[in-house]
Amino acid sequence: MVSKESKTQAVINLCQRRGFVFPAGDLYGSFAGFFDYGPLGVELKRNVQASWWNRFVLGREDMLGLDGAVLTHPRIWKASGHVDAFNDPLVQCKKCKHRFRADHLIEEELKESVDGISEEKLNAFLSEHKLVCPDCKGALSEAKNFNLMFKTSVGATEDNYAYLRPETAQVIFTNFKYLHQIGRKQLPFGIAQAGRSFRNEISPRNFVFRGREFEQMEIEFFVHPDKLDDCPDFDAVSKRKALFCTEKHQKDGEDGQKMTFGDAIKKKIVQTKWHAYWLAEALDWFASLGLTKLRLRQHRSDELSHYAKETWDVEYDYPEWGWKELMGIANRTDFDLKQHSKESGKELAVFDESTKQKVVPHVIEPSFGLDRLLFTLLLDAFTEKKGKDDSGKEETKVLLKLHESIAPVPLAVFPLMKKDGLAEKAWEIYVKLKKQNPAIVYDESGSIGKRYARMDEAGTPKCVTVDHQTLQDGTVTIRDRDSGEQKRVKSDSIKT
Ligand code: GAP
What's the rounded Cα separation, in Å, for the pair 85 and 307? Predict the structure, then answer.
């Protein structure tokens, strides 16, 4: 970093300054944990989501798409276990009354991960280390479970209540049998959904990394219970390598070990081939967006969610926070379908053609968080370099080296200057190119250096400049964001 602020803070500042994403509801102040996406952010978000949808839904023969309701029946969440178990540990300062998430407080004070450990153990930690309120040093209450679901009422009576879904997954499970019937898919197959989820986080923090309203892109992949190792696609990924951080590595304080997915299965580090396949696929998709600083971290047995038999997080090595969860891929077994079957009284088993058996499938769940991913992509792409402004004075320039497939503005067209018919020519070229790709922009205001700098900060991979030579031979310059190199090309050869 050239500048003094942390990279994370520099990216948050850029997000606000250029309108990628910023705290919601500025006019009236806002509740913490809610964000609005501005023009650049909304395009980035749509591009990333479209890339995910194209690859994992439209690009596959074994996937069905879904866009389910956000306000959901309370019995869904009773059955799924969220009413009883979707809690975070809350402590309150007895003096200033501020509230904190007990596990985060311990992690910050003692630099030790206690994610998912029991209320009892947390309280033992709090009293053993005599932790006090970080704001006023007052004494803390005991940690108590706080349910993270938002509740609201439906219709003209307060008695009918609903929950805002805290994950998109359950809406997939409740539709499973119906989609299996109408979707004409045989096991194994998946159902994918991208949409909003809501969690009443005790202390939302780290910008959009942990919000109260966010988007998830989830797949529930249904497999015959005896066929979790019968994965025809595994061979195609078995030679790919990843950094695996097992429970043992974590106990030994190590980052992990690089190995192939084939070896991870052979050594029983990952228990089933379908699980390993989805881990490999997730990493490959991230790599296609330019994100490679990743590892796979196994959930410790004391942090597994109530529904999971085995979970691996894909983690990114964040500049100030170190390794943190970007997404998770869990083996949810038949937990959810069986729970919904019990609660609703309806059978959720399906007929499996290959074995002629009626089975309740097991589920591998790749669960991506869109907002967290966008922030990670921005952090990863953020680059500073020394440069000169128009008057020749040294300044720090910002480049967002976003992958060109997701850049909010794929290309910008400029006239070198407004006069001599250059603006008219540039506009003509712009209108033609916009038919190829409507996301391109035209800019004629300010010096050419300022316009390049504005586009570099927005992550625009290419800028086309129209100059006097264009009027003579139809060529323009095309400038590459990362190298700053300019080439002359025929304007009608440009593809966006
Ligand atoms: N259906 C499984 C599930 O929801 P999760 O680990 O709680 O699992 C999956 O969430 C992903 O959703 C996370 O890895 C993260 O990317 C995203 N996510 C979860 N809580 C979030 C929050 N409060 N703010 C932003 N993203 C969040």
Answer: 10
